[in-house]
Amino acid sequence: MQQAARAVAAVMLLIAPSLALAAGGGFAGPAVAGIPMEFVFFAATLLAVAEAATQVKRANQLNDDLIKTKQDRDDARAELAAWAALGIPVNQVKDVIAEAKRLQTQTEAQEEEIKTLMRVNQGLTHKLAKLIQEDYHVPLPAKLRGTILVADPKWDFVVLNVGQDQGVLEDGELLVNRNGRLVAKVRVRSVQKDRCIANVMPGWKLGDVVEGDLVIPAYPAS
């Protein structure tokens, strides 16, 4: 709207002399040759209104920026006050924050290491159980659901989209189904973070396993 008003006003001011010449053959001012002063006043008013609107918009933007700056300042003051309440000098705040981040990183690394050790221990427990019990089956999470990503019918191995993060364990067995019908049973041979490789078990291949087939635990944990 502001740009349109400026454009109209500018055009009116520019054509005023031409209109005057066309009407009377000369131009000695806006009231000459039938060109009323209101014409020029109207064009000037349009320009003034457009300029005023621009200034108001600019003022509003500056006011918004000022409010945000004040809010940032108040937040910074509040944070400094919180550190001061803890008895920590301002010049030491940066070091304290850096140390907190270092400890957080160290904690996360230790937690990941603990998870890894627990998985290893769990795997060894199941291997020991298989040695003691001939018919032992490694249990997998009851809610585990996966999909065949790659299937090799020649060598009867598959790659699944589930792994350590989903609770898959080496030697775990999975039932492969398609449209609710059993296709095969596979045994996990290697496990990665979010993938695993399994072999189709002899005697359990009722059809070719293909990409997109679904898997569920053959022996879900209770």
Write structural notes for this entry.
With 222 residues, this protein is an alpha+beta fold. It folds into three domains: 2-68; 89-136; 146-217, Beta Barrel (Thrombin, subunit H), CATH 2.40.10. The chain has three helices and six strands; from the N terminus they run αααββββββ. The chain has a six-stranded antiparallel β-barrel. The longest helix is centred in the first third of the chain and has 49 residues, at 37-85. The two termini are 70 Å apart.
Write the layout of secondary structure elements.
Layout: H1 2-24, H2 37-85, H3 93-132, E1 146-152, E2 157-160, E3 173-178, E4 181-191, E5 196-200, E6 214-217
Antiparallel strand pairs: 1-2, 1-6, 2-5, 3-4, 3-6, 4-5
CATH topology of the largest domain: Thrombin, subunit H
Which strand order spans the largest sheet, edge to edge or round the barrel?
A: 1-2-5-4-3-6
Characterize the main sheet: 6 strands, antiparallel, barrel
State the shape.
Answer: elongated
Which ranges are low-confidence, i.e. pLDDT below 50, for 5 or more consecutive residues? 18-33
Helix content: 40-55%
Q: What's the architecture of the largest domain, going by CATH?
A: Beta Barrel
Order of helices and strands: HHHEEEEEE
How many angstroms separate the termini? 70 Å
Find the count of extended strands (DSSP E, 2+ residues): 6
What is the multimeric organization of the chains shown?
A: single chain
Q: What is the class of the largest domain in the CATH system?
A: Mainly Beta
Q: What structural category do the secondary elements indicate?
A: alpha+beta
Q: How many separate domains make up the residues? A: 3
Q: Mean pLDDT, rounded to whole units?
A: 79
SS field, number of helical segments: 3
Proportion of beta-strand residues? 15-25%
